[in-house]
Amino acid sequence: MKAARSSLALALLCLLRAQAELPVQPGFDPDKFAGTWHIMAAASNCPVFLSIKDKMKASISKFSFSPDGDMALRALFPMGDECKKVEMHFQQKGQVGHYTTTGEEEERDLYVVETDYERYAIVSSITESGKKPSTTLQLYMRSQDVSPQLLKKFKELYSTMGLTDDMLAVMPKSGEWQRDKQGDGT
To answer: What sequence ranges are listed for the domain Lipocalin/cytosolic fatty-acid binding (predicted)?
Structure first.
């Protein structure tokens, strides 16, 4: 009986993990995706995100790709009167559009779920850190304008990942001051 319960618990964990992973954009083209994007909405069960989500504004992210397929991400997150700068490097993992990074404290898988390259992208990440993985879904825009249709599509996707409305942050525009302080915005 105890073995059956353990197997059931393991199966449920695998189901939850599989539910959180979305497919990668078919035929993903890194050259078209590269460049500057704004994070305009995010949903996550990450405790750090949940503690600051109501204070967040749209951020600027810049994606670039190396000839061997690896990806670099530079981002600026407005926090009050300051910008927090983050740089991450990912290795391509299997299919183009799926990237991973391993740090001392966490492992992160990033999936480009859907994009039209010109207006929007939906990106998912699964972070393994400590005992509990966290799932994040982000809506990127080339500009700081989000259509109601794209926001509706985004909300439908995050609910399939076990994320709920109380885990959502729709970021207000952050202003062009970021570009002035940082040169190119990143």
So the answer is: 34-173
Cα dist. 167→40, 52, 75, 170 in Å?
14, 11, 21, 10
CA distance 140 to 110: 14
pLDDT value of residue 173: 82
| 154-179 burial: b if 16+ Cβ within 10 Å, else e | bbebbeebebeeebbbbbeebeeebe
pLDDT tens digits for range 90-141: 999 888 999 998 776 778 999 999 999 999 999 999 988 776 789 999 999 9
How far apart (Å, rounded) are the C-alpha atoms in residues 59 and 40?
Answer: 7
- Of 185, 178, 154, the closest CA to residue 167 belongs to 154
> What values do phi and psi take at 58, rounded to 5?
-55, 135
More confident residue, 178 or 159: 159
| Pairwise CA distance, residues 182 & 178, whole Å | 6
Which superfamily, per CATH, for 29-170? Calycin beta-barrel core domain (2.40.128.20)
Separation of alpha carbons 169 and 121, rounded Å? 16
**Among candidate residues 66, 71, 130, the one with its CA nearest the CA of residue 98:** 71
Q: Could you count the other beta carbons within 10 Å of the beta carbon of residue 68?
A: 7
| Tokens coding 15 | 């189901």
Q: Residue 175's pLDDT is what?
A: 65
